[in-house]
């Protein structure tokens, strides 16, 4: 039991770091969308980390051999749809709502694992999902347009994010996170380049020093998000740890308030608290159920 709890704790720490990196990445997306065209921004989000990883691999003469090529290709399809959807949403609405919709993925991950992989959904996951889902609804506040076309685009990002995480979880235990990142950003760079073909205006950007810094920070945060998540999934499957991604919601809410002066209302604050409680309850409930099982 101690070994399981230690592994779970390590996975939790990595997921918290992933959630913080995710919020930072989308903060810089929000800042950059006013100056960088949509398709170009998505391309830069992939190509810059890929060039960094390719350089590291070349200097270290590391092999890029993989045992999960099909999984990488399937994952990047999910990731690309999620990225195009959430980048578009961020350009139209608040960072907080964008992060909430993207982070509906923990609600879908256990269902996808149950349906396709026949994984059992533990009681702690069900309870945590329900609490967090209530928090999500409080933040989105259905009466203000939850079921609009824009929100459905954001929800599509969450569904595709869930699919990508399930695939990622299956390959994370077979090879190092760096290999997965190399193929993710490599395939992402190739596929996200095609929408730019013939769009000369998409390249007409005023590259100020501050904008370059924001793009580099976006790429770095995106890279760290994926790296920490890979480390987490090496300890536990996605449905066990994905709830902790909800921590990116209150972090994004803070950025909305601190950077964009967009103050959340009382219901949004209650929702953010429920999201945190939902993630925290999974730790407490998991420990409780494991301890109870051991004493029976």
What does it look like?
The mean pLDDT is 85. The chain has helices spanning 2-32, 38-60, 69-92, 95-102, 105-117, 123-140, 149-172, 177-193, 209-233, 238-241, 248-260, 266-295. It has one domain. The chain starts with a helix and ends with a helix. With 296 residues, it is mainly alpha-helical. It contains twelve helices and no strands. Helix 1 packs parallel to helix 11 (248-260), helix 2 (38-60) packs across helix 9 (209-233) and helix 3 crosses helix 8. The longest helix is centred in the N-terminal third of the chain and has 31 residues, at 2-32. 78% of the residues lie in helices and 0% in strands.
- Quick one: how many beta strands? 0
The gross shape turns out to be globular
Percentage of residues in DSSP E strands: under 5%
The number of helical runs is 12
Percent of residues in helices comes to over 70%
- Low-pLDDT parts are none
Rounded mean pLDDT score: 85
Question: Which tags fit this structure?
Answer:
296 residues, mainly alpha, 12 helices, 0% strand
